[in-house]
Amino acid sequence: MIVAAALPLVAEYGATVTTSQIARAAGIGEATIFRAFKDKEEVLEACVAEAVGPDHVLRELASISLDEPLATRLTEAAEALRAHMERMGTVIGALHASGHLRGRAAGPAARDAGDGPPPDARARSFAALRHGIIELLAPDRTAFRLSPEKVASAFLGLLFTRLQTPAAEGDAAPLTPEELISVLLDGTLDASPGNA
Q1: Which among 10, 57, 61, 115 is most buried, taking Cβ atoms within 10 Å?
Q2: Over the stretch 119-177, which tens digit does the pLDDT of each residue have?
């Protein structure tokens, strides 16, 4: 509850957020924060761990109805993952901008936030996300030419490339989630008569 209330404040104020602001947002007394956390630093580390951890987005993926059409399921998954990446970037960016994470050598949040989670945590997170996407593909498993594992990897690869590639001046807007799903499911060739 404290971390959930603190996350939007950390995203807005970075490390300058006060425990008093967090307490008000959580609807608790400030002393309650210090029963759960040693100090504000520990609250900030918990916020970073929550922002970079996949648990929230995995719950969102699991809540997508398997009764929806495949393209709809994957579009909802793309939106959930985009929101997750945006939240992660906003929280870590705000902490960097407020000078909190720069030049710090100690503490897991400092290590993890500079480049994201450590490599083994990144691999576990990617595997969990991939598994979540595989579950969304399961109802249509027989329709694919590739294994659901490969389709899930292709989906995540396309999505993360889209999210991390800044548009160059003059470039068209990045792929929308719907366009990304169309490329994944239908390719980029125009299959209309006369173009095949």
Answers
A1: 10
A2: 787 788 889 999 999 999 999 999 999 999 999 999 999 888 876 555 566 666 777 88
Buried b (16+ CB within 10 A) or exposed e, 6-32: bbebbbeebbebebebbbebbebeeee
The pLDDT confidence band at residue 40, using thresholds 50, 70 and 90, is: very high
Residue 123 domain-assigned? yes
Q: Would the pLDDT of 8 be above 80?
A: yes
- Establish if 154 belongs to a structural domain: yes
Half-sphere exposure of 55 (CA within 13 A, CB side): 6
Indicate which CATH number applies to the domain containing 139: 1.10.357
For 1, 25, 39, 158, 159, the CA distances from 30, given in Å and listed in that order, are: 13, 10, 11, 44, 40
Domain of 61, in residue numbers: 53-166+174-184
Total domains present in the chain: 1
Residue 13 belongs to a domain: no
Please give the distance of CA 10 from its chain centroid, rounded to a whole number.
17
